[in-house]
Amino acid sequence: QVQFVESGGDLVRPGGSLRLSCAASGYTGGIIGMGWYRQAPGNERELVAYIKERGHISYRDSVAGRFTVSGDYAGNTMFLQMNSLKPEDTGVYYCNRVPVRDGLDKWGQGTLVTVSS
Fold this sequence. Notes:
Blueprint: E1 3-7, E2 11-12, E3 18-25, E4 34-39, E5 46-53, E6 56-59, E7 67-72, E8 77-82, E9 91-97, E10 111-115
Parallel strand pairs: 2-10
Antiparallel strand pairs: 1-3, 3-8, 4-5, 4-9, 5-6, 7-8, 9-10
């Protein structure tokens, strides 16, 4: 069973930065096709960014220019560098395959990012 473990979330003030990490255990497909999701309170889970191809990242418009995805293409580790954080970035961040295959790709616990002054 593939497991995703996210870490790095914290409480940060607007304008601050955080670096999230994702470790995929048991995943053999590499990080291409993996991405970051988030779920804000009261909202649906949304895709933030994902690795379409090696070195080619697709970003949600609201985070483009502020967030950067990177990772170990030879392994199963992915990162999300978040700069110039805004309160609307608050939420639980998850990593998973893109798209998620219902019944096959299990969600991890996520890591909470809170942007507040």
